[in-house]
């Protein structure tokens, strides 16, 4: 079900949605033409994968040679000839590289993520893969349309890109992804062109896909909440929504704080590998543990069912036999409860998250929609249905195309922007100093850190000033403002303002001091603003320690969109003025 409104722009425009996943990546596009209805289409051809059609995705893999040059991407990196050459020449493989971009403090076992190739960081690899995908999209689109090269040349300078990322990512990760787009050549490095890069969470992209394709619309229409479980290779993104009807039409709101779990399909395989390494240790099959795990991952994992008494991994030759390890004719037999143990931590984490969403939601939730590559797991699907049905939650899983939900949904997000309100994931604010009060016990305990500022007033540092509280519903257009000031001996020192925006990650509902749980106050970004015009209007003030200057301003944050926006606002000659603020991550 494509959007029903014809494009009204003056000239054609290309929208490209890019979903770089932990294990597989995909792209969708939409060529907007004046007077025509938009149509969302997948990119279905990649080098060495041309035979795969429909909703194909490409493996997120790069091989680098000894000099650090990228030599093979995607399906090419899986070809036997390439693997052989890689072994002979000492190439290094980059896989699961997306997880190296994860936020600091993410709940993930460090040794579960393969290291990056030597002399490569996460941005390097992400950039190379983004450049590869862009080339694939260009080749596919040029071939699809008559006079394709000329058409591409006319479109390229105005392409709008929508990049997807897990629910748990924010400004720092978005900034790195935008840098990758610039380095990869998708856009020039200008402020105007940077606006052509858009971001959407995988959870929200999945909602857009579901709505566009008419999935789970009945409960939403009836005013009930739904939970989208986007189960991918690396992460499981869980988001709850409700439908809101207004005179302007229907929109959707988050009704609970979205969650991001590092419990995707790869971690099932990791647990299988840990088990096999331990089980086969000291045997002649010890060195085969990694190969057996790959066979499990490719052929056994998604087909495994809770009703199976045994699960089989075909990995070797007919001559491979071992009664001790249940190996017959190159096939290892594992008891169902053992294999279920590989899946259970992921299942348990999803169930806990769904329960939390239901408990904190402002409206009753009736349905859970399971999408993503990991959704194809028969065991995961059946176990979720069993547990959630007992909680009066219906579980739906689209019959097909679940692996292109995010890329298609990214385009839908750009075309229709259905989500009108989101729930803040953290408490956001800045660190300030505050006048010392001898009757305030919190101030007295910090008396040793108090100091006299340029105005001669005794001040206490490390005060946290909240601008937006956690779990607040934020509309797409709402701004959050807080007033601040800075003082200096001379006006020239106030020609620029630089403030660190913090996001509190602890459980305190009213965090007041950054020296308590200091590890839970990471800097989200730094706002750098040019206040030179305002500084010219400052008048000297007399303080206890002599003359000083004071600048008053508001920090204005907008969290309703999928990317943090910030500005510095001030009053000049009775008129509010705003300076563009640059966010430095």
TrEMBL record:
Cross-referenced Gene3D superfamilies: 3.30.420.40
Top-level taxon in the UniProt lineage: Eukaryota
InterPro entries per the UniProt record, alphabetical: ATPase_NBD
Alphabetical list of PANTHER family matching this protein: ALPHA KINASE/ELONGATION FACTOR 2 KINASE, HEAT SHOCK 70 KDA PROTEIN 12A
Protein name (record): Actin-like ATPase domain-containing protein
Protein's organism: Mycena metata
């Amino acid at each position: 079900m494509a959007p029903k409104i014809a494009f009204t722009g003056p000239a054609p425009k290309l929208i490209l949605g890019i979903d770089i996943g932990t294990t597989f990546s995909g792209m969708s596009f939409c060529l907007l033409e004046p007077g025509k209805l938009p149509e969302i289409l997948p990119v279905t051809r990649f080098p060495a994968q041309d035979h795969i059609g429909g909703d194909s995705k490409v493996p997120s893999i790069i091989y680098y040679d000894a000099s650090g040059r990228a030599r093979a991407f995607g399906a090419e990196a899986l070809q036997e000839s390439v693997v052989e050459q890689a072994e002979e020449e000492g190439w290094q493989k980059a896989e699961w590289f997306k997880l190296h971009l994860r936020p600091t403090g993410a709940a993930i076992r460090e040794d579960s993520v393969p290291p990056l190739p030597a002399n490569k960081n996460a941005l390097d690899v992400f950039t190379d893969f983004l450049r590869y995908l862009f080339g694939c999209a260009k080749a596919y689109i040029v071939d699809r349309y008559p006079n394709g090269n000329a058409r591409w040349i006319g479109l390229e300078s105005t392409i709008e890109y929508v990049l997807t990322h897990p629910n748990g990512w924010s400004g720092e990760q978005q900034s790195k992804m935008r840098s990758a787009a610039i380095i990869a050549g998708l856009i020039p490095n200008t402020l105007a062109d940077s606006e052509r890069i858009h971001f959407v969470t995988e959870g929200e992209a999945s909602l857009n896909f579901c709505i566009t394709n008419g999935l789970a619309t009945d409960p939403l229409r009836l005013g009930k909440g739904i939970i989208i479980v986007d189960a991918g290779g690396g992460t499981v993104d869980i988001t709850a929504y409700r439908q809101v009807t207004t005179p302007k039409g229907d929109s959707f709101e988050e009704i609970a704080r979205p969650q991001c779990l590092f419990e995707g399909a790869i971690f099932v395989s990791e647990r299988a590998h840990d088990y096999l390494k331990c089980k086969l240790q000291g045997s002649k099959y010890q060195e085969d543990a990694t190969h057996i795990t790959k066979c499990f991952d490719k052929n056994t994992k998604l087909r495994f069912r809770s009703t199976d008494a045994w699960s089989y991994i075909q990995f070797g030759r007919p001559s491979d036999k071992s009664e001790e390890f249940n190996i017959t004719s190159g096939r290892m037999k594992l008891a169902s409860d053992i294999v279920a143990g590989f899946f259970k931590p992921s299942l348990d984490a999803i169930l806990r998250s769904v329960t939390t969403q239901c408990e904190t939601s402002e409206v009753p939730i009736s349905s859970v929609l399971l999408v993503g590559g990991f959704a194809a797991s028969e065991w995961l699907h059946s176990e979720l249905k069993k547990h959630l049905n007992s909680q009066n939650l219906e579980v739906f899983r689209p019959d097909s195309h679940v692996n292109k939900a995010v890329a298609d949904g990214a385009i839908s997000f750009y075309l229709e922007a259905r989500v009108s309100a989101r729930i803040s994931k953290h408490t956001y604010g800045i660190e300030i100093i505050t006048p010392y009060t001898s009757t305030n016990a919190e101030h007295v305990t910090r008396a040793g850190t108090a100091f006299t500022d340029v105005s001669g007033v005794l001040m206490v540092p490390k005060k946290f000033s909240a601008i937006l509280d956690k779990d607040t519903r934020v509309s797409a257009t709402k701004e959050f403002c807080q007033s601040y000031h800075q003082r200096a001996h001379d006006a020239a020192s106030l020609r620029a303002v630089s403030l660190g925006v913090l996001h509190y990650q602890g459980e305190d509902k009213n965090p007041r001091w950054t020296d308590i749980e200091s590890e839970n106050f990471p800097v989200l970004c730094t706002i750098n603003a040019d206040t030179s015009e305002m500084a010219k209007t400052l008048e000297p003030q007399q303080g206890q320690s002599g003359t000083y200057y004071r600048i008053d301003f508001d920090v204005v944050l907008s969290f309703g969109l999928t990317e943090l926006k910030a500005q510095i606002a001030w009053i000049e000659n009775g008129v509010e003025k705003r300076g563009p603020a640059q966010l430095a991550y």
